[in-house]
């Protein structure tokens, strides 16, 4: 099988909308899909769209408490806040048909997982997904239902024995970690800004898993200001060795692009070019360690025009096996759409003009460098659990 791709998509996925003042604006998904279409990402014969259906209550109960699901339904009908479930907060305002919108995103991620597990395609993507903060019994961090965890839980229900989850969002993937913290069938790896400076305040190196799964929760907590070379150094020092040892049957990845220097809610300083390099690395690791079975989800990202559409269009093209030349100009029709939908000026090119190079961690540990200290803390905490020497 080649680099076949199924795109789980329905225009209604943009109905997950907390309102005009909320940073998680669905226009970012709309502009991503429009840019990808204009650049021909979906035109390859190996790419197909798959329809999606809302996740049923039975499906949602794989990861969410029944009482919470009912509370989401009530809130989306009454539009009344429910503090006991963190519904109606500034992060998670209630909105009409909230359950239906969130269940559709969850259903799309399960559809992507199904396409990969059943062998319909090598890769599958839900670019509207990646709502990784939602907890079993409450909303959290712009996330109502945890579609990433649900896709993983569905794979386990089908008989998967090893699923790896790699989260490159700037925020810790706390909800997914929580749901599989004591399950050695699931390896969760999150690279994120340090909890000392960013929501949700978790994701330290010593959060390594429960008593039956020690070493299966992996956290790389990076200092504010981490740039492309240092982020990539951390990624390559931690992720490939663990995936090669774990040998997942399916790789699930979350691609929040709020690691970018322009993102208004966080403090890392990556470029679109550095993010594109991470996508390439994960694609190669999916081929090398998971027989190509790769489920790809969106995530955070709050610079709605300059960053998200370009980053995720690069992601979609990489997953499709037809990576775009970063030197490409953005299409004039897309720039006009950006102006019409947001009033902003669109970026002119698909690159930030950076060369995402890095020095491998194996070339030498610098104890005075805070990124190197974060890398070493993670390797020391989890590598021995997998029989890997943290000092090599």
Task: Count up the domains.
Answer: 1
Number of strands: 8
H-E order = EHEHHHEHEHEEHEHEHHH
Enumerate the spans where pLDDT stays under 50 for 5 or more consecutive residues.
none
C-alpha-based Rg, rounded: 19 Å
CATH-level-2 architecture: 3-Layer(aba) Sandwich
Largest sheet, order of strands side by side?
A: 2-1-3-8-7-4-5-6
Instruction: Identify the CATH class.
Output: Alpha Beta
Number of helices: 11
Q: Mind telling me the CATH superfamily name?
A: Histone deacetylase domain
Q: What is the CATH topology assignment?
A: Arginase, Chain A
Structural class: alpha/beta
Head-to-tail CA distance between termini: 35 Å
Classify the helix fraction into a percent range: 25-40%
Strand fraction: 5-15%
Mean pLDDT: 98
Large-scale geometry: globular
Largest sheet: 8 strands, parallel
Describe the model:
- This protein has helices spanning 27-38, 57-60, 66-78, 98-117, 147-157, 174-179, 228-246, 272-289, 308-319, 332-342, 370-382; strands at residues 5-8, 47-50, 123-126, 163-167, 186-193, 217-222, 250-254, 294-297.
- Helix 8 links the parallel strand 7 and strand 8 (294-297).
- It has eleven helices and eight strands.
- The protein starts with a strand and ends in a 10-residue tail after the last helix.
- It has a single domain, classed as Histone deacetylase domain (Arginase, Chain A, 3-Layer(aba) Sandwich), CATH 3.40.800.
- It is α/β, with parallel strands linked by helices and 392 residues long.
- Helix 1 (27-38) packs antiparallel against helix 10 (332-342) and helix 7 runs parallel beside helix 8 (272-289).
- The longest helix is centred in the first third of the chain and has 20 residues, at 98-117.
